[in-house]
User: Fold these one by one.
Assistant:
Number 1:
Amino acid sequence: MDISIFPDKAVKPSETDLEPCLGANSYAHWKKIRDYVISQYPNATEEWNYPGKKYGWSFRIKDKKRAILYFLPRDQHFKVAFIFGKKAMDQVLKSDVSPEIKTDLKNARAYAEGRGIRIDVTTEETLKDIERLVQIKLAH
């Protein structure tokens, strides 16, 4: 089951909870992505979110009215999730992000707000793709 390592609604995670749960390498990736998003959109707001018992706690960075991306903490790693509307999706498909991400996005179920993808963050190459996706998200 793909659920947050922070499942208890009564215990909101904190920054100090992250590193031991994610591991040093994954925590460093988390910080790089977070810092990158804030560098691109300094007025962003950050918040822990509990959408329900089925998912547990996640962390999101938002602009004024929408989420830029979600961090999904797992045991010794994490995922990043995006939701792309039609214009942004078209831009992702034309971009230089990995073919796997493009395939996942094309195959994602379409909802009113767009198509969502989740990306396991494991390598430096993944970080570059995520930076590009953040740029696209902010442009659309």
Note: Residues 24-40 form the longest helix (17 residues).
Number 2:
Amino acid sequence: MKAKNIADFKPSFNTKLFLDTNIWLYLYYPQNTTVAKQIIDNYSNAFDEILSKKCLIVTDMIQMSELINLVLRIEFRAYTNDKVNISFKEYRETTSYIEALANAKTLSLNILKSATLRSGIFNAEELKTMVDNCDQADFNDIYFANFCFKENAIIITHDYDFNAINTKIELYTLNNKYLN
């Protein structure tokens, strides 16, 4: 799949987009590394342009699930840096988990202020095909690529896993693995 540099992205009013979960995290979830700051700035600039052009951003419940679970796992890893001998199930009984879940819910609701939730766009046969292809890439990435294809949406991602997917979608990124 040939990706385009997000710096070259010029949306118009009728551009339909899907922001991959990693992009939402760059936009709304605190990250404190030098690399992340540079990436965040570039994706934030693109997001500002998307909002200024009033582009349609689409999402679905698979992405909301992925986002919530990812935030909880990130917070679990941070929590267990000091408490190595705790399972995720035990973590769910802590105040840290309750706070992480509240943050994940807030993050999801903030995303839904900018994105339109879609559902029920795949039939059973299409879903079976995606499951059958999950040896090629992460199931969610296969699902999102097919979601974008069906929605005729451009995907913005920093995840290189989309490279392994044969679905013909338009993709913008800063990830050098795509751009070299």
Note: Residues 14-179 form a domain with the Rossmann fold fold (CATH 3.40.50.1010).
Number 3:
Amino acid sequence: MSKNPVVHFEMPYKDSKRVAEFYEKAFGWQMTKLGDDMGGYITAGTAETDENRMVKTPGTINGGFYDQSLKDASPVPSVVIQVADLKAAIEAIKAAGGKILREPQEIPGIGLWVSFEDSEGNRVSALQAKNG
């Protein structure tokens, strides 16, 4: 496995039904809207996964879409980088000139996640997977 691979992408949406229909029709992705407790997040299944929801084919990733109107939602797409230790990654991000945008959050069944800004102002996320 690569060191700190990109494991997920995220993009904002303005209309949940429209974005789900677009990616289902255009690319055949399996779009699944999560409950209101997850802020209307929509998962985008682009690749087959195993019982731990990890992709079976190396080099492929799945993603998700979030409501652009939510407080603190980014208006631009981003990627999620998997790390072994989120606390250590946060320190490395800061030491390299990055800025942590919010406190780390637990994503139920997935792991610990944090959003940050890189040295160029890009929004990126880091994830310490629960099973990884």
Note: Strands lie at 6-13, 30-33, 42-45, 62-67, 78-82, 99-100, 105-107, 111-117, 123-129.
